[in-house]
Design goal:
The protein is an alpha+beta fold. The protein has helices at about 10-15, 20-25, 50-65, 70-75, 90-95, 100-105, 115-130, 135-150, 195-205, and strands at about 5, 35-40, 45-50, 85, 115, 160-165, 170-175, 190-195. β2 and β3 (about 45-50) form a beta hairpin.
């Protein structure tokens, strides 16, 4: 599950925004600093962005900037959404997480209680891997246990979820980024997800 990138030149052409707007929005923290990815190309150093996230964010900014100031937009796009909560039926109705995932992994005792942003993130990550066809429902139980037990230890710092198998046995790991992870021979990495990107995707869905 490789992240698709878009170059700065392509981004400006596709969205019609100017270089100045892009960097003004960066200074206002409307676009996260770590979305500006410097890479070497045959023409030298170029800036790239996670395509799906940056296009959704720019569309959001363009749609809202007529009604809100940049400072008000910055507040809306900030981590304040960590305080956001929704009930199970609202999560399903708004297609934030599929009904299959909520019915399977969210305990019935939560039917009338709101889910926090962190709890929704757990289900969102599971839903993402299931919908990609990378993982079985049984493996989802293992994943839920892993992120419930360990994700909080990162305390908001960037991390990746790594899903791997060896001889049909599945396992999950959470890895700080940047960082390197090496496996013994015979291990197949099935999927790698940036938890930071999943959080941004979830925030966009919650708007």
């Amino acid at each position: 599950m490789e992240r698709e990138l878009i170059s700065k030149k392509e981004l400006l052409e596709l969205t019609g925004i100017s270089y100045g707007q892009l960097y003004r929005w960066k200074r206002k923290q409307l676009i996260p600093e770590d979305w500006f990815i410097r890479k070497s190309t045959f023409t030298g150093q170029e800036t790239f962005f996670p395509k799906e996230l940056i296009l959704a964010r720019i569309e959001k900014i363009i749609n809202l900037k007529e009604d809100l100031s940049l400072d008000e937009l910055a507040d809306k796009l900030s981590p304040h959404l960590y305080d956001f909560s929704l009930r199970k039926d609202e999560i399903i109705k708004r297609n934030i997480v599929s009904k299959i995932v909520m019915d399977r992994y969210a305990s019935k005792q939560w039917d009338d209680a709101p889910f926090t942003f962190d709890q929704m993130l757990h289900f969102y990550v599971i839903d993402k891997l299931l919908q990609a066809g990378e993982m079985s429902l049984e493996e989802g139980e293992l994943l839920l246990g892993t992120i419930r037990e360990h994700l909080g230890k990162f305390q908001g710092k960037p991390c990746d979820l790594v899903f791997f198998r060896k001889m049909g046995v599945s396992a999950f790991a959470l890895q700080s980024v940047p960082g390197e992870l090496y496996f013994e021979s015979g291990v197949k990495v099935v999927a790698r997800l940036s938890i930071s990107e999943c959080m941004e995707e979830l925030k966009i869905k919650l708007f």
